[in-house]
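Query form — protein Co-chaperone DjlA N-terminal domain-containing protein

QUESTION: What is the three-dimensional structure of this chain?
INPUT:
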Amino acid sequence: MLTQDPLLEKHRREEALSATIAQIMALASGEQGDPSPTLAEGIRTTVQGLIGVEMSPDAISQATRAAGDPGRVLSNATEQATYLTERGKDLVLRAAIAAASAGTMDASRRETLAEIGKRLGMMPAHVNGVLAEVA
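ANSWER: The structure tokens for Co-chaperone DjlA N-terminal domain-containing protein are given below.
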């Protein structure tokens, strides 16, 4: 007897991963609460392009409101990193950098981005290279 529904599990994994990506981008942007239209569109296109999931505006708002707890966001990033390829991790970090670039790129924001890369399981040299290249 089948006790788990593989499609339901896949759907839950995709929901959790898309919410985590949205939270990472919101944390990097420094926005609190409901996202600006620019951030919401960036999240929508990143999630759609990376994992093929269309996030509703409500799901994006719910995820970005949860970004007010950086410890939780970083913990979620660590948990969800196993579902991303190395290229996927790189793209998530680049999306976070793009979200952060909408504001002032100060030392604190760079530290947050470096921690995001670390929590995604990226090598420090790779994270530093991406930050030097993009930020």
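ADDITIONAL NOTE: The CA atoms of residues 15 and 112 lie 24 Å apart.
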